[in-house]
Specification:
Helix content: over 70%
Oligomer: single chain
CATH topology of the largest domain: MetI-like fold
Number of helices: 16
Number of domains: 2
CATH class of the largest domain: Mainly Alpha
CATH architecture of the largest domain: Orthogonal Bundle
Amino acid sequence: MSTDTLRRRTVRPSTRFADVSKWIFVGVGLVLALVPFIWMLSTSFRTEKDLFSNPASLFPTEWTLHGYQGVWEQLPFLLLVFNTIVFAGVTTLLTLLFDSMCAYALARIDFPGRNIAFWLVLVTLMVPFQVTLIPVFLELFHLDWLNTYQGLIIPRATSAFGIFLFRQFFVSIPRDLDEAARIDGAGHLRIYWQIILPLAKPAIATVAVLNFTALWNDLLWPLVVTSTSEMRTLPAGLALFGGQHVTDHAVLMAGAVISLLPIAIAFFLAQRYFVAGVATTGLK
């Protein structure tokens, strides 16, 4: 009798039940997560009559491209996409630079008050963004930065979570690499740029995907900082379009579907590094 046959016969019923239950829960969770996206995609191809006559249906009875045509005809869609790319892309690049530099100092440089500085960074994670919204808005008003790219980007150019994640990853990198680099005459800037960052690709991908996704979908900040259609981002433009006109749900859903594509592409391109970063960050 083979070993595999013996193993199959010795598997307890409780173990099999646990495995089946696990996959059932995973399947139910997957369905619940996908249903809203399927409904959104379906609505983008439906007429208003079809939608309100049977709103619970996941598939249209009459297919139409009216929603995707309306995106280009009723909205300054290219301008909204351009503003969103500038806002999310430039802010993410600045976040990667500033957060990694701050994290390098907290993880690899010994200076008085380093632990206190790190705890202060963690404390800011507990402060809701809405608490500082009005003071930051007043500061931008006095700087005359409202309705400008710098007003959108600079206040969001750092992230306490990004500093924390980078710091935890940098701590796991052996310090022997620093000592070897110093023997060759390298300073902190060279060690950071040529040694630490190339080893931190999983952390960089993780922070980049999380920040880019959050900024691309951000609604509150662009609504507060911008008041002209020329500076609005895609979420703000879609939200105001739905409030200023008789809501055309097909157009709104079509715009939402198109806005999801860059996020999906970014995730799939960085998926390997993203998963590695989540799995290994903070491990020695």
